[in-house]
């Protein structure tokens, strides 16, 4: 089945690329990011190269960048797409 949504792998890579770009814009080295966040340097390097990281480590990195609130909407209850579809099909 074809999906317009990116795969988990693609999403991980996109997040890693955005993280690396933000870290570099802020002129923070990988070593400094690792020390200040409590994430090992190896985990940080692996994340920035592959997109693979534990959720806890990702949240630590994002927190250090002041972007933890970006995760507020993840898995938040909202409109059910099936309910919205019913509005248009039931007359």
Automatic annotation (TrEMBL):
Residues 20-71 form the HTH cro/C1-type domain. GO terms for molecular function: DNA binding. CDD domains: HTH_XRE (cd00093). SMART domains: HTH_XRE (SM00530). It holds the Pfam family HTH_3. PROSITE patterns: HTH_CROC1. This is Helix-turn-helix domain-containing protein. It comes from Maribellus comscasis.
